[in-house]
Design a protein that fits this description.
TIM Barrel, seven-stranded parallel β-sheet, five-stranded antiparallel β-sheet, 29% helix, 16% strand, binds alpha-D-glucopyranose
Length: 462
């Protein structure tokens, strides 16, 4: 990973101010750039950048316990139902055509209290909304001289404040997505993948940076977010974004704010996108951000939705590896959430509610060598939660657990389960094989959870 960072750093930093085609070759999609940059590789000791009274552990505590967040991609791209910003960057539509969507963005059915009800219903403990995507259109009343839904669309009002207010009422943490890239800003070098406004113009880049920092300050001051979710850092280096200064200014405003990793090494936690990590990430804090279909924003033609059970499988996989899921919804231009997404969030919430002990206040589970499936552990490591997405032929098997089992039951219905131990002669210190019977009638239609109470903290054979 270090090597990747070093080579990307070199790529981005060769010639400061070359934020242009040289740093973003036209055949490079954002996906493959993100995939390389998805985990933060800290450039320096973060505790020295804007030192805070609070340790990283203290700042990240709520995030670690949250497990589920809801991502909201909302912007003018919902008017025509085309891809957010990328549709003009990749020249599927001209910038001029794209910006005509401003006229159709009404937010006429925007009821933030209903959104928050749905978010709460899903079991999420935080939400992250796009305050500004790469197209540069702010969803709040920016004082900078640039596009906003307040000044340039029929919506005509700040859409962020009322959502923040509703989230606060329900004690749901507030996350604000902010794109460092702004392809519409006159002093930003890139307009599309082929059209560059300038090359190597440090004065114009400085103008842009001043504007960019001013907007970041605005969202920090106006909304005191719990989390800022940066995006688009791949188009420039840490020096060019002045990433260190961004971190400093945000933590000065609010020592408790946490930052995702897309800040060229100055973030707090890793942000893989759509690709569920196969093995447990080494970073202590991470979150998978994922679409419900294949689009971030509203695209009515995209019906490739995951089923609720698939989303639950993915969610469980994340928490069993110690991470969170940030699940996306893309409301339409009126503010209506797509029915399929309402369904997924509702089903997910129902499942979580039934199994919440296995979800919140848990930590990553045991290695899959010990149990062929996802698992979590209670905070004190004395209860093991085993997730089961199928009907076992007979008992489920556990290996390498040195503890005695006090009791096993099905979470959510309480049925006590039979536990058998094999291959455990009295003279051997090796753990036996544990088999737990899970009768068919106790299975959950989406994902069963078996709780296993141990005789103390879990001890796994090395
Ligand atoms: C990407 C994309 C973007 C999307 C985001 C969500 O970086 O540029 O369109 O908003 O990821 O993770």
């Amino acid at each position: 990973m270090k090597t990747i960072w070093v080579s990307l750093f070199l790529l981005f930093s060769t010639g400061l101010m070359q934020v242009n085609s040289q740093s973003l070759p036209s055949d490079v999609t954002h996906e493959n750039l993100i995939n390389q940059l998805q985990f933060p590789v800290y450039q320096e000791d973060m505790s020295l950048v804007a030192p805070s009274e609070l340790s990283l552990e203290e700042r990240m505590k709520w995030f670690k316990d949250a497990k589920l967040g809801i991502f909201i991609h909302w912007g003018i791209y919902a008017v025509n139902g085309i891809s957010e910003s990328w549709s003009f960057f990749n020249e599927y539509v001209s910038h001029e055509e794209y910006m005509k969507q401003l006229k159709g963005f009404t937010a006429s059915n925007y009821h933030p209290e209903q959104w928050v009800e749905l978010i709460e219903r899903s079991g999420a403990h935080y939400a992250v909304i796009t305050t500004k995507h790469h197209d540069g259109v702010a969803l709040w009343d920016t004082k900078q001289n640039h596009y906003s839904v307040v000044k340039n669309t029929p919506a005509g009002r700040d859409l962020i404040s009322p959502l923040v207010k509703e989230l606060r009422k329900k004690n749901i943490k507030v996350g604000l997505y902010y794109s460092l890239i702004d392809w519409s800003y006159p002093d930003y070098p890139n307009l599309t993948k082929n059209i560059k406004r300038y090359q190597n113009d440090s004065v114009r880049w400085e103008n842009f940076t001043r504007f960019n920092h001013a907007q970041i300050k605005e969202i920090s001051k106006n909304f005191s977010p719990d989390l800022i979710w940066f995006d688009g850092d791949w188009e420039a280096s840490a020096e060019q974004w002045k990433a260190r200064q961004i971190r400093e200014l945000l933590l000065k405003d609010n020592p408790e704010v946490i930052l995702n990793s897309r800040l060229q090494g100055y973030g707090d936690y890793a942000t893989p996108e759509n690709g569920l990590p196969v093995s447990r990430p080494v970073e202590p804090y991470w979150e998978l951000c994922m679409t419900t279909n294949d689009s971030w924003g509203f695209q009515p033609g995209d019906k490739n939705f995951k089923t609720s059970t698939e989303v639950i499988q993915i969610f469980v996989d994340c928490i069993s590896k110690g991470g969170n899921l940030l699940l996306d919804i893309g409301p339409d231009a009126t503010g209506t959430v797509q029915q399929e997404q309402v369904q997924i969030l509702t089903d997910l919430g129902d499942w979580i509610r039934k199994h919440e002990k296995a979800v919140y206040h848990t930590q990553a589970g045991i290695p899959s060598d010990c149990y062929y499936g996802p698992s979590t552990l209670s905070e004190d490591s004395t209860i093991l939660y085993l997730f089961l997405d199928h009907q076992p032929n007979e008992g489920i098997m556990l290996k390498g657990i040195q503890n005695e089992i006090h009791r096993a039951w099905v979470l959510g219905n309480g049925t006590r389960l039979d536990v058998k131990v094999h291959n455990k002669p009295y003279w051997s210190s090796k753990p036996g094989l544990i088999f737990i019977d899970v009768p068919k009638e106790t299975l959950d239609a989406r994902m069963t959870v078996v709780a296993v109470l141990l005789d103390g903290k879990i001890r796994i054979e090395k």
